[in-house]
């Protein structure tokens, strides 16, 4: 990758659709060159065509970021260019009773949502700290404010990302590197369909615009905030969930995520 001009540079995983694509659009609109990564090459090509219309350079990297070699390849694709902003956004979900859900899919989820996130962060963060500059955004979820019946593994991965990000922020407080955690609620993406949750209340509910979610995340990242829950409604929901006894909060989530609850 060449750097013919000195535009800032952002790396976004899961950058070909949903919140990730809208995050990439925010950075492109603010003059950042981009490296977007995901697994589907065609989705990446389509996204790059759209994002580059404003004149910024958009590179793509297609791989399974749940695998160590995929993350290593993404880091090599950065090619030594200083990363001004890293958005650790790639992730998948799966709904249903834990005793019935597919173990292979859940292990893949852990690999992508957690292991891959840790690996990529380790690689990029070392470079950021060495030059005392950079910003990292983790896409967690409002699900990280409560136990998540019928999304038990997914919820666990988002709890991990929330507190991983908050812990790193504290570790880095005396450096020029900031860490922000994005905690969206239900968002209008293909997440619920892919997670086999079309028949749940959450799957059928009115959802937030991913562009609104991404703007909130971008603005918080640029401001150096510790975390952001997009929209006032969701801020209230998250605060209530944080305050409720865990078993009550779990029951609330069950009402949204239990199979058949949308009927």
Automatic annotation (TrEMBL):
InterPro entries: NAD(P)-bd_dom_sf, Sc_DH/Rdtase_CS, SDR_fam. This is Short-chain dehydrogenase. Belongs to the short-chain dehydrogenases/reductases (SDR) family. The keyword Ubl conjugation does not apply. Keywords: Oxidoreductase.
């Amino acid at each position: 990758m060449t750097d013919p001009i000195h535009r800032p540079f952002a790396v976004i995983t899961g950058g070909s659709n949903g919140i990730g694509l809208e995050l990439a659009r925010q950075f492109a609109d603010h003059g950042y060159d981009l490296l977007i990564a995901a697994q589907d090459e065609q989705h990446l090509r389509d996204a790059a065509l759209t994002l580059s219309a404003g004149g910024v350079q958009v590179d793509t990297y297609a791989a399974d970021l749940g695998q160590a070699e995929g993350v290593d390849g993404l880091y090599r694709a950065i090619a030594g260019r200083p990363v001004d902003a890293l958005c650790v956004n790639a992730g998948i979900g799966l709904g249903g009773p834990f005793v019935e859900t597919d173990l292979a899919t859940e292990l893949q989820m852990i690999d992508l949502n957690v292991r891959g996130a840790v690996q990529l962060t380790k690689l990029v963060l070392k470079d950021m700290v060495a030059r005392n500059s950079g910003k990292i955004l983790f896409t967690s979820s409002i699900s990280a404010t409560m136990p998540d019946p019928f999304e038990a593994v997914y919820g666990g991965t988002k709890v991990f990302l929330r507190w991983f990000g908050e812990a790193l922020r504290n570790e880095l407080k005396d450096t020029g590197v900031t860490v922000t955690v994005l905690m969206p609620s239900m968002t209008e993406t293909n997440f619920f369909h892919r997670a086999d949750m079309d028949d749940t209340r959450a799957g059928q509910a009115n959802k937030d615009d991913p562009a609104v979610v991404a703007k909130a995340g971008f603005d918080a990242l640029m401001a150096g905030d510790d975390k952001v829950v997009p929209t006032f409604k969701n801020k209230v929901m998250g605060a209530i969930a944080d305050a409720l006894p865990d078993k009550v909060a779990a029951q609330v989530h069950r009402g949204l995520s239990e199979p058949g609850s949308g009927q």
